[in-house]
Design goal:
Blueprint (H helix, E strand, L loop, with lengths): L6 E10 L5 E4 L6 E4 L7 H7 L7 E6 L13 E5 L14 E6 L2 E10 L3 E5 L9 E12 L2 H6 L7
Antiparallel strand pairs: 1-2, 1-3, 1-9, 4-9, 5-8, 6-7, 7-8
Length: 156
């Protein structure tokens, strides 16, 4: 069976940045399973998987526009330190859930100053080309329940 809309696909992958450093991998874990055509993985990788079959191994380079988007400077903001009331010690790299005009989002602390904290609401991979090495392990038709819920049954 070839990968198409409403197929449950399992694949192993290694994701690297343009510098060749491994960002994420399924090595040592079960293959990643997703429901094709339902936006469960980045669009560029889903497009690259379309039409593939079990045993296919390939590399896919996904541009930011089809990955986690372009890096948006407007998502970097200085907020008053009082917004972090109850947090004992703020440090770069800490992440928090924040409310925005577009709904809840995760922000990462970039810098702590005397009265303000610089936070970044971009995804950590925004603006980066994603380089995937993929090995398709399984392809099957989704059940009606999986299609209705928009994701595969994981057996949990």
């Amino acid at each position: 069976m070839k990968i198409q809309s409403n197929a449950v696909v399992g694949f192993d992958y290694t994701l690297t940045g343009d510098d060749g450093q491994v960002i994420d991998t399924s090595t040592g874990r079960e293959p990643l399973e997703y429901l094709h055509g339902h936006g469960n993985i980045v669009p560029g990788l889903e497009k690259a998987l379309e039409g593939k079959a079990v045993g296919d191994q390939f590399d896919a380079s996904v541009a930011p526009e089809e990955g986690y988007g372009a890096y948006r400077e407007e998502l970097v903001q200085d907020v008053p330190k009082e917004a972090f009331e109850g947090v004992d010690e703020l440090a770069p790299g800490m992440s928090f859930r924040a409310e925005s005009n577009a709904g809840p989002m995760t922000v990462v602390v970039k810098e702590v100053k005397d009265d303000t904290v610089t936070v970044d609401g971009n995804h950590m991979l925004a603006g980066q080309t994603l380089n995937f090495a993929v090995d398709v392990k399984s392809v099957r038709e989704a059940t009606e329940a999986e299609i209705a819920q928009g994701s595969p049954n994981t057996g949990d």
